[in-house]
């Protein structure tokens, strides 16, 4: 079920930073209390393959996100201790040393369960043991959320495990959202900062199509 147009869940989750500090992060509060946009991106596992390329790509774009009044938060279901071990591992050894944004440690899977982004293909109840048997890795897909200053989800997307994200697309989405907020115009297909937008009415559509 999509969260677009709805408030992000009001839930605090353990997080880790590059200093080895564990603290609570409430994504909704980060947006609303700081009056900033938030990009929250989930990845499957620490110490894996595509994942470190994405974390480094978001880090390399931090200056661009900051220019856009946007907070970046990473997230997976690993524990804070595993996050710190990965943060302490050099890039040459497959680590994410140098990443400065916080990384959620949703090890109890409370938030990822609410979001519905876990790799669970089937659940069955074992009457003999009284336990739930889960099929799938029970880790998150590559889900991404763009949340505005009011805590409302403006974009969500989910990639399967092997497909890495294009960080520039989230910068483009933030630019489009900011343009809508500030100019009251809507952004057509393939819009980028500096290109023509349009009025959200029939005349605006006709004028845009006629000139493009």
How would you characterize the overall build of this protein?
With 212 residues, the chain is an alpha+beta fold. It has one domain (12-165): Glutaredoxin (3-Layer(aba) Sandwich). The chain is built from seven helices and nine strands. Strands 2-1-5-4-3-8-9 form a seven-stranded mixed beta sheet. Strands 6-7 form a two-stranded antiparallel sheet. A hairpin with a 4-residue loop joins strand 6 (122-126) and strand 7. The longest helix has 17 residues, at 167-183. The two termini are 35 Å apart. The mean pLDDT is 95. Residues 2-179 form the Thioredoxin domain. One of its GO terms (molecular function) is thioredoxin peroxidase activity. One of its GO terms (cellular component) is cytosol. Keywords: Oxidoreductase. The active site is at residue 51.
> Number of helical runs?
7
| Helix and strand run | EEHEHHEHEHEEEEHH
Assign the CATH superfamily: Glutaredoxin
Strand count, sense and barrel status of the largest sheet are:
7 strands, mixed
What percent of residues adopt helix (DSSP H or I)?
25-40%
Distance from N terminus to C terminus (CA atoms, Å) equals 35 Å
Q: Over the alpha carbons, how many angstroms does the gyration radius reach? A: 19 Å
**Basic shape:** globular
Secondary-structure-derived class: alpha+beta
User: What is the strand arrangement across the widest sheet?
Assistant: 2-1-5-4-3-8-9
Function: Thiol-specific peroxidase that catalyzes the reduction of hydrogen peroxide and organic hydroperoxides to water and alcohols, respectively. Plays a role in cell protection against oxidative stress by detoxifying peroxides.
GO cellular component, one term: cytosol
Keywords: Oxidoreductase
Protein name: Thioredoxin peroxidase
């Amino acid at each position: 079920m999509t969260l677009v147009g709805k408030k992000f869940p009001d839930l605090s989750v353990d997080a880790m930073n590059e200093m080895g500090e564990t603290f609570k992060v409430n994504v909704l509060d980060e947006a609303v209390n700081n009056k900033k946009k938030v990009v929250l991106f989930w990845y499957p596992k620490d110490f894996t393959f595509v994942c470190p390329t994405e974390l480094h790509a978001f880090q390399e774009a931090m200056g661009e996100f900051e220019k856009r009044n946007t907070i970046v938060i990473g997230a997976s279901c690993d524990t804070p201790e595993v996050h710190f071990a990965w943060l302490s591992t050099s890039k040459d050894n497959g680590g994410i040393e140098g990443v400065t944004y916080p990384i959620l440690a949703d090890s109890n899977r409370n938030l990822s369960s609410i979001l519905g982004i876990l790799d669970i293909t089937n659940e069955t109840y074992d009457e003999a043991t009284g336990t739930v048997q889960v099929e799938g890795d029970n880790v998150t897909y590559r889900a991404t959320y763009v949340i505005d200053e009011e805590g409302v989800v403006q974009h969500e997307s989910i990639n399967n495990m092997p497909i890495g994200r294009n960080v520039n697309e989230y910068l483009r989405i933030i630019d489009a959202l900011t343009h809508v907020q500030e100019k009251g115009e809507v952004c057509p297909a393939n819009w980028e900062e500096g290109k023509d937008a349009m009025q959200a009415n029939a005349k605006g559509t006709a004028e845009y199509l006629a000139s493009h």
